[in-house]
Design goal:
Layout: H1 5-25, H2 29-39, H3 47-51, H4 62-90, H5 92-96, H6 113-127, E1 131-132, E2 138-140, H7 141-144, E3 169-171, H8 177-185, E4 190-199, E5 211-221, H9 226-241, E6 246-253, E7 256-265, E8 282-291, H10 293-298, E9 307-313, H11 315-323, H12 336-339
Parallel strand pairs: 1-4
Antiparallel strand pairs: 2-3, 4-5, 5-9, 6-7, 7-8, 8-9
Helix pairs in contact: 1-4, 2-4, 6-11
The structure holds zinc ion (ZN).
């Protein structure tokens, strides 16, 4: 089958017209690139197909078609370049590019100071052979109060302090129910550290929040004494705060006897006295004591054979001292400027 020069030139001209029409409506650099690739493109361009027809022409027609082919190719390439220039000039991103502008800030996530403190406390006690224990946030009244030797009329059980649920349930007011649940499940010797959220109906002031993290520790074995308690907690304070003075003051809790509160020298004023330490130079960081025999017995542990100690502390307060934060409420504000300071 022979191909005539007139046929081939007519097809080539039709292709040129179609391509110019596509260029006119190509409204982005991506669309223009697609037209370029499908027309004059080196590998996929349809123009190549016309060049492939050249050997089929009669010898005298070849130079005529060759010249026509080259003219169309040059015309299309020039039209594509012109369209590219027009689209580039009107692209808003290109027009707005200002190389002298400062780079955009990089945002980075950071652990909350309370999380940092919790993880550090857990790490220190894990080094001492303690394991992590957890329990439910919605508790039975018995685990939260009864098993922990609270008398039935104890003020902590008042509706003002406790968030009660239906059918004798409540939101735990401390992590101490984990002590009872652990003692019911595992025989001594036991050393646990129990982090978790607790709930109070306290009003919100500089040092109280309705929900806050607590971390609790317990050791139960034969022959455990107050000496072990004091040595363990003093060791902890030195590791957490760096070398620090500590003192124990007698206190009272229903679930420990004797009970004590441990203070560390105020880190904000170095013991000189400031608003955070109420000018005393000391800050209470935890409550502790020897476990009351009634608590061991209610969990099914023989209090004649075994003894134990327990302590509890608030990581949010620990964070105040650790990082020199003046007001506990800042930690609940989700203020990026505050939280960013803890990015590592
Ligand atoms: Zn102070």
């Amino acid at each position: 089958m022979s191909t005539t020069l007139a046929d081939l030139v007519a097809q080539l001209d039709a292709f040129r017209d179609a391509t110019l029409a596509q260029l006119a409506v190509a409204d982005s650099l991506d669309a223009l690139e697609a037209v370029r690739a499908s027309s004059v493109g080196r590998t996929r361009g349809a123009l190549n197909d016309y060049k492939a027809q050249l050997p089929k022409l009669a010898g005298a027609d070849k130079p005529t078609f060759g010249a026509r082919f080259n003219a169309v190719k040059v015309e299309l390439e020039a039209a594509i370049d012109a369209r590219h220039a027009a689209l580039s000039a009107s692209a808003p991103a290109a027009a707005a590019l200002d190389l002298s502008m400062p780079a955009r800030r990089q945002w980075r996530g950071a652990k909350h100071p309370v999380t940092i403190v919790l993880e550090e406390i857990e790490g220190i006690f894990r080094d001492l052979g303690f394991t992590i224990a957890t329990g439910p946030e919605a508790e039975h009244e018995w685990y939260n109060f009864g098993a922990l030797n609270f008398p039935p009329d104890h003020p902590a059980m008042d509706m003002h302090d406790t968030l009660y649920l239906e059918r004798g349930g409540l939101l735990r007011t401390h992590t101490s129910p984990v002590q009872i649940r652990t003692l019911q499940s595992y025989p001594p010797p036991i050393r646990i550290i129990a982090p978790g959220n607790v709930f109070r109906r306290d009003f919100f002031d500089a040092s109280h929040a309705p929900m806050f993290a607590q971390i609790e520790g317990m050791a139960v074995d034969e022959g455990i004494s107050f000496v072990d308690l004091k040595a363990t907690l003093a060791n902890f304070a030195n590791r957490f705060f760096g070398e620090t003075k500590t003192r124990f003051r007698p206190s009272f809790f229903p679930f420990t006897e004797p009970s004590a509160e441990m203070d560390v020298a105020c880190r904000i004023c170095n013991g000189a006295g400031c608003a955070t330490c109420k000018q005393t130079g000391w800050v209470e960081i935890l409550g502790c004591g020897m476990m009351h025999p009634a608590v061991l017995e209610s969990a099914g542990v023989d209090s004649q054979k075994y003894s134990g100690w327990a302590f509890g502390m608030g990581p949010a307060r620990m964070a105040l001292q650790r990082f020199g934060i003046p007001d506990i409420r800042i930690q609940y504000d989700s203020d990026i400027a505050f939280l960013e300071q803890f990015a590592q």
